[in-house]
Amino acid sequence: MKRHHRSLRTRALLALAVIAGSLAIALTVPVRLGLDLRGGSQIVLETRSTPAAEASREATDRTVEVLRGRVDALGVAEPTLVRSGDHRILVELPGVQDPQKATDVLGRTAQLTVHEVLGRAENADTAAAQADATAARVLPDEAGQPLRLKAAELTGQDVKSADARIDQQSGAGWHVTIDFTDTGRDRWAAITADAACHPAGDPQRRIAIVLDDKIISSPQVATSVTCGAGIAGGTTQITGSFDATEARELALLVSGGALPVPVEVIEQRTIGATLGDAAVTAAAWAAVIGTSLTALFVIAVYRLMGLLATLALACYGLISYAALAALGATLTLPGLAGFVLAIGMAVDANILVFERAREEHAIRNRPSTRSALAAGFRGALSAIADSNITTLIAAGLLFAFASGPVRGFGVTLGIGVLASMVSALLITRALAEYAASRAAVHRRPHLSGIAHTGWVRDRLLRRGPHLMRHPRRWLAVSAALLVMTASGIVVRGLDFGIEFTGGRLVEYATSAPVDPDRARVALAEAGFPRALVQSSGDGRLTVRAEDLTDTDTATVTDTVAGLGGDAEKVRDELIGPTLGDELRRNALIALSLALGAQLAYLAVRFRWRFATAAVGALAHDVLILAGVFAWLGKPVDGVFLAALLTVIGYSVNDSVVLFDRVRELLARDRTAPLARLTNRAILTTLPRTVNTGTGAALILAALAVLADDTLTDFALALLIGLAVGTYSSVFTATPLALELHPRTPAKPQRPTAHDRASRPTGAPRTERGRADRV
C-alpha cells in the first residue's frame, strides 16, 4: 500500500511539473505561424556552379548572408532566410503578396564591374571574335551599340557604399552615387586618367559600368579632367532614366555585394492574408468542434474515466503547443491538422487502457476498479508503445522527404504522438488512480466506466462469432475491393499536383462566380490552351499550367478578371521541373521506406509472418486510397502524401493492437489453434477499434466539413483510410497471417480458464478445428 501511494505521489508530481513547465512556455514563447496561416511569400533558391566558382556548402552560406542584407533593405518584417541542404536557400517574406519584386532583387547575381572602353565594335559577332583574341568583352551600351571593353579594373569588392539620390536642383532625376574603398579610389583615378587622354566624343573616353553582364551606364569622362590626372575622391554616379524604386533597388544590389554563385528560383508560393486568416479560423473551429464531440463520446462511453481522460486531452493540447514553441517549429496549415489528428492518438491510448481494464475487471482477476486500472495500464503498455512508434516512423519520413507545409505536418504529428503518450501514461494514470482510490468510487464502481464491459463487447461475446473460420473468403473480398478501386488508377490515372509535375498554380477569388468551362475557353483564346481550370468553391477559380511566366500570369489574371469582375490572387505556387521530379522521387522513396520500416519493426516485435501480413494490408490500404482518389478526380499532391503516410500509421496501429493480443494469448496457450486464438483476439480488441475509430472519425468529419478546401481533401483521405484500415487489420492482415502460418493436425483443445471467464453465461462455444503448432 505504501509503495502504491508513493508511486501515485511520484506520478502526480511529475504530471504537475510537466503541466507547469508547459504552461510557462506557452505563456512566454509564441508559436511561429507559417506563411499559409499568416499570408506572405515563400521562395526556394538553388545555387548553381559556374566555371569560376563551385556551388559548395560554404558558397551557399555566403550567398545567404548577401541575400539577408538585400532582404533587410527591402523592409520586410520578420523575414526568414535559412540554408536547406548544401545548395538550397529558403526565404520566407511575411506580408509580401507580390513576390516578383523580391525575386528580381534576390535572384540577381549583382556582379558589378568597371571597364575601360577600347572602342566600338562593327557587330556583335565579329566583336565577340575579337574579344576572344584580346581577352576583352563585347557588350551593347544603353543605346544598343556594341562596345569592346577591356578586362575589369574594378569589381563590387572595391565598392564601399551606394546610395540612391535625386538631383532636385538640376532636375536630372534619380541617380546612384557610388563610393569606392581606398583601393578602389586609386584604381578609379587610374582608369579615368587613361580615359581622359582621348579626345571628347571618342568612345575610348567612356567608362563602362557593368552589372550582371549588362552595361547600365557608360558616361564619358568630363573634359575638365586632364590626361594623367584622373578623378580624385573615389566617387562616381550612375545616371539613367531611373525612378525612385529602380534607383533604390540598384543601390541595394551594388552596396549589398555580388552573390558568390548564381541562384535559380525553383519554388515559389504566395498565400493571401485573407486566405491565411480564413484557414486559421476554419481549422480552429474544426479543432474545437471535433475535439468537443470526441470528448463527449469518450465521457459517454467511459463515464468518470472518460471525463478524466478529457482533462488529460486538454493537457495534451497544452504540452503539444509548448513543445512546438520550445523547439521553434513553424505551425503550418497541414501541421495544424496534424495537431488535431494527434488527439485521436491520445484518445486511442486512453481507450486501450480502459478497454483492457474492463476486461480485467470482467474476468474477476482484478475485483476492484483501482487494481483493474493498474492491470489495464500494464497490459496496454506494449500495444501503446508499438502503435505510437509506427506512427513516429511515418512522421519522421514526412519530415525527411516532404517539403514546405507538409513537412510541418510531420513535425506536429511527431510532437503530438509523444505528447499523447505523456498525456495517457502519466497524466491520465495519475488522475484515474487517484479517482479510483476514492471511497465514493469504490462504493459505486459503475460510475467509473470500468465495472461493465460495454455493449459492443457484450454483444460480441454473447454471440461468439467465429470470424476466422474461412479466412480465404475474407481475402477474396479484399482482393475484389482492391481490384474495383485500384482500377481507377489504370482507367482514369492519378491527377498529380504541381509538387510532383512542376508548373504554376494560381488561385483567384472573383467577385462573381466563373464557370470553369467558360474560363478554359477564354484562356485558350488568350494563348493558354493547355491550362487546367477548376472551381475550388466559394467563388474561387484555380488555374494550373506547366510553364507560366510572370507576364503570362498577369495575362491570366486579366482574363479571369474579365470573366468574373474583380479577381484577387489568393494563392500562387511555382514549382520548377527539377524540384517536381525530386519531390516525386522523394514521395516514392518515402512510401517505400514507410512500408519497409514498418515491416522491419514489426518483424522484430512480432513473427515475420505477422509483419508480412500487416505490411500486405498496408499496401492494400495504400492502393485502395489512391484508387478512390483516382475515381474521384482528386489531386495527388504533398498533402495527399501526408494523408497517405498517416493512413499507414493508423492502419498499422490496429494490426499492432490485434497482433499484440494474439502474441499474449499464444504465450498463455501454445497448443491452441491459431485461428481460435486469433478470433478471440479480434473479439476482445474490436471494442477498442470501434471506439477509437469513432473518436477519430468525429475529428476528421469536423475537418472535412469545416476546414479549408486543402484540408477537406486531407480529411477525406484520412476518413477513407480510417475505414479501410479498420477493415483490413481484421479482414485482410489477420486472414493473411493465418494463411502464411503452417498448419498441422492436432487434437481438439479444452477451453482455458480465460475462455470460460471471458464468455458470458449462455454464450455458445466457439468451434475448434486443427491446431497450429507455434
UniProtKB/TrEMBL annotation:
NCBIfam families: 2A0604s01 (TIGR00916), PRK13024.1-3 (NF009583), secD (TIGR01129), transloc_SecF (TIGR00966). The keyword Ubl conjugation does not apply. Residues 765-774 have a biased composition (Basic and acidic residues). Belongs to the SecD/SecF family. SecD subfamily. Residues 139-261 form the SecDF P1 head subdomain domain. Forms a complex with SecF. Part of the essential Sec protein translocation apparatus which comprises SecA, SecYEG and auxiliary proteins SecDF. Other proteins may also be involved. Residues 61-117 form the Protein translocase subunit SecDF P1 domain. Pfam families: Sec_GG, SecD_1st, SecD_SecF_C, SecDF_P1_head. The keyword S-adenosyl-L-methionine does not apply. This is Multifunctional fusion protein. It is a multi-pass membrane protein. It is found in: Cell membrane. Residues 263-434, 557-741 form the Protein export membrane protein SecD/SecF C-terminal domain. Part of the Sec protein translocase complex. Interacts with the SecYEG preprotein conducting channel. SecDF uses the proton motive force (PMF) to complete protein translocation after the ATP-dependent function of SecA. It comes from the Bacteria. Residues 741-774 are annotated as: Disordered. The chain crosses the membrane at residues 278-300, 307-329, 335-354, 375-402, 408-428, 474-494, 587-604, 611-632, 638-659, 690-708, 714-738. Keywords: Cell membrane, Membrane, Protein transport, Translocation, Transmembrane, Transmembrane helix, Transport. InterPro entries: SecD, SecD/SecF_arch_bac, SecD/SecF_bac, SecD/SecF_CS, SecD_1st, SecD_SecF_C, SecD_SecF_C_bact, SecDF_P1_head.
